[in-house]
Amino acid sequence: MFFLKKIFWIARNTFTEAARQKFFSFLLLLGAGLTAVSLSLTHFDFGDSELKFIADFGFGGIFLFGSVLAVVTTVQLFFTEIENRTALTMLAKPVRRGEFLFGKFLGVWCLLGVFVALMCGVLAAVLALRAGTLAEVAGARGLPPPFVDFGGLAVFGVLQWARLGIVAAMTVAVSSFAQTYLYAVVVSFVALIIAQLQYVFADFASGEKVSFGVKALAGTATKLIPNLQLFNTGEALVFDPAGLSAAAIGCALGYGVIWIAALVFVGMWFFRFREI
Amino acid sequence: MSEENRIPAIEIENLTKDFRVGMRGVKLRAADSVSFRVEQGEVFGLLGPNGSGKSTTLKIILGLLRPTSGSCRIFGKNSADVAVRSRIGFLPEAPYFYGYLSGRELVKYYARMSGVPAEKIDECTEDALALTGMTDAAARRVKTYSKGMLQRIGVAQAMVHDPDLVILDEPTAGIDPIGSAEIGDAIRAMKSRGKTVVLCSHLLGQIEELCDRVAIMNRGKLVVAGTLDEVLTQRGKQLAVIGAGTQLTPELVEKLRERDGLNIESVSHPRISLERYFLENLKRK
Lengths: 276, 285
Ligand SMILES: Nc1ncnc2c1ncn2[C@@H]1O[C@H](COP(=O)(O)OP(=O)(O)OP(=O)(O)O)[C@@H](O)[C@H]1O
Ligand SMILES: [Mg+2]
Prior knowledge:
The complex is a heterodimer. Chain A is mainly α. Chain A has one domain. Helices cover about 80% and strands about 0% of the residues of chain A. Chain A has helices at about 1-20, 20-40, 50-85, 85-90, 95-140, 150-175, 180-195, 200-205, 210-225, 235-240, 245-270. Chain A is globular, with a radius of gyration of 21 Å. Chain B has helices at about 5, 55-60, 105-115, 120-130, 145-160, 175-190, 205-210, 230, 250-260, 275-280, and strands at about 10-20, 25-40, 45, 70-75, 75-80, 90, 165-170, 195-200, 215-220, 220-225. In chain B, a hairpin with a 2-residue loop joins strand 9 (about 215-220) and strand 10 (about 220-225). The interface between A and B is medium-sized, with 24 and 30 residues. Adenosine-5'-triphosphate binds next to strand 1, strand 2 and helix 2 of chain B.
């Protein structure tokens, strides 16, 4: 089981290094700060919609800063290692290239997990604070308190972790063949935007007024691009008393894991043949 | 000699490496049918001017680059075989390391990756740090290290798992003379314990002192390989050393030349090298 140990230590080392870089704390502070600030923007009583307003800040922060963190740290910790030839010293040890790449990915993914957990924690605290105040106001008027599902928020966090995992895996795949830092970052962000807009291709593929060629093209694209919108489940999970079915949640998680595995394999494939 | 010891540590045959450079598939031949072998237990020097293909050859030996053609075996195994690398320690040229780890964490990390058993990791790490004189700076982050310190920590990581074969690509680049001598001592110590060392360096004085055999490369081709005696001794010329009592004045040289028919090309005083001077006068007490 030496290879599992190696992957563990590479991941752990990657995590330590990423956590010690100022970039992580900076994004975390920015995201958490933004969520907290949203509290001061809500002086008026909008009831439920006010909580949704706060939550939108939190959800947006997790996705926006999380994505930036996923792309930049992955390039920083994987591509830069190839470029600076740190990887050379590591691969001269009894370490396979696949183990190296997978360890790097896991390290970044763990960091993203910490990021999502902390962000969700801040969001939960802010929501609880405001929901308490709102419940008092509503109680005085004889209305029911606003509905917030904190368990749903935790599930939402796990789904965001999977989504950011896809983003990091995409960046790993891009970094494995990129020749410059800028290329790795830009192409990864473009891939992120395309994945975010995957539904546009899906619309084309199922559209009625489009030609057959476009339809086929869009259909292929739909299959080759992960659909990140699938993870936009915040509102349903946190504010909808009906929530989401366990099957739907399981499906989204499985979808995430399959895409992560596929992208990491693409990265391993390119990296195997790369001259460093 | 046991059967195991007879297997050469490194055996490369007709190794050729082309790099693709530029857009139109222009190729650069960095190594051109290079063949040599390194026996177990010897210190082997790989020399040559800049860009002669030394580092490229070493990277192929470690399986970091794929040869265009030819073969390379380490302890009888294909160099693409990952497992054999637990017996090798490698210091790449101009090494760069994880800046956010401390020196000690870094060496420990590499020890783990090399398969050092958990209970021996601390001991091996401290030994390697002491060997390279990095114990005092080991708690600092690698990001703050000077060039020579980086190089030293690089040597520490190459030796931490007590490998049977150490490959050092310019270990003394950027290191002060005392540090270079210490690395030389470490190499001698490895040799005395039966280990094999491959050394690539521009410090020819040190190479002369340390190496049993050398190979010299130029423009990707192997120019010569053999023991230092074979390579350096000029059998055609002699050097006479004349004791303190006799003054070798120009007149006397002239006389010896004309009367006794001696062919004296020049007379010079022996001098010590700058490196020697540094060592003798600046050595740590
Ligand atoms: N990745 C690469 N891509 C293209 N060309 C390369 C690559 N690596 C090395 N070369 C070329 O191969 C040749 C040999 O390089 P190498 O680094 O092996 O030289 P060296 O003998 O180690 O020189 P030095 O003493 O300067 O370290 C050089 O002309 C170099 O430009
Ligand atoms: Mg070199």
